[in-house]
Amino acid sequence: MTTTHSPSETATAPELSSLDRCDSCGAQAYVRVRLQSGELFFCGHHASEVKSALASTAMEWLDETDRLIADESI
């Protein structure tokens, strides 16, 4: 599994937008998991719940939950 982390200090734009929604609850997604069968999107809460179950089969784990902390300073 490849873990991708996008720190908020970098100049690159986030890959996930407010249009990406959590597949579990519909909240804004901050984590995208790429599996061989497709992609799953999760909010920070649900991503932490499923991480151990999906870690062994995930091809990529994009985690932008650091944006939650950055958004609080606005």
UniProtKB/TrEMBL annotation:
<dbReference type="InterPro" id="IPR055878">
    <property type="entry name" value="DUF7455"/>
</dbReference>
<protein>
    <submittedName>
        <fullName>Unannotated protein</fullName>
    </submittedName>
</protein>
<dbReference type="Pfam" id="PF24254">
    <property type="entry name" value="DUF7455"/>
</dbReference>
<feature type="domain" description="DUF7455">
    <location>
        <begin position="16"/>
        <end position="68"/>
    </location>
</feature>
